[in-house]
Amino acid sequence: MVTIYFVHKNGKQTEVKVPIGYTIMEAARTYAEPSIDEIPADCGGCNSCGTCHINIKEDIDKVGMVEYDSLENELLETNMEYDRMYSRLACQVMLEKKHNGIKIYLRDMESI
Ligand code: FES
Questions:
Q1: Where does 2-111 sit in CATH, by number?
Q2: Rounded distance, CA 28 to CA 61, Å?
Q3: 70 CB near ligand 1 (under 6 Å)
Q4: For labeling, which of 26, 31, 51, 85 is most exposed (least CB within 10 Å)?
Q5: What is the 72 CA–ligand 1 centroid distance (Å)?
Q6: Distance from Cα 59 to the centre of ligand 1, integer Å
Q7: Which atom of ligand 1 is the closest one to the Cα of 89?
């Protein structure tokens, strides 16, 4: 089990406990109570919709940057809040023990 923190645009944080082996998207949709609206995850985690866009910021070393020549990066580049250094798709990050305590910055609801 790891504990992660979703940071909303208003600065409020949502703490979520999730078993290792699930993705950040699954943490937001299934384990958060209530679920995280800023991650609608329209494709259900198939790496095809881009609606699970998150920014990792200070914990990017633990998670890793998106690969430049990847489908994930192609999807991210179309998002308004895309940041080459910190943007990831929540469905493409599987949680491991090293991710305990990471902060996940959410997009503005109006950009979704
Ligand atoms: S849920 Fe659709 S790309 Fe992540």
A1: 3.10.20.30
A2: 21
A3: no
A4: 85
A5: 9
A6: 21
A7: 4
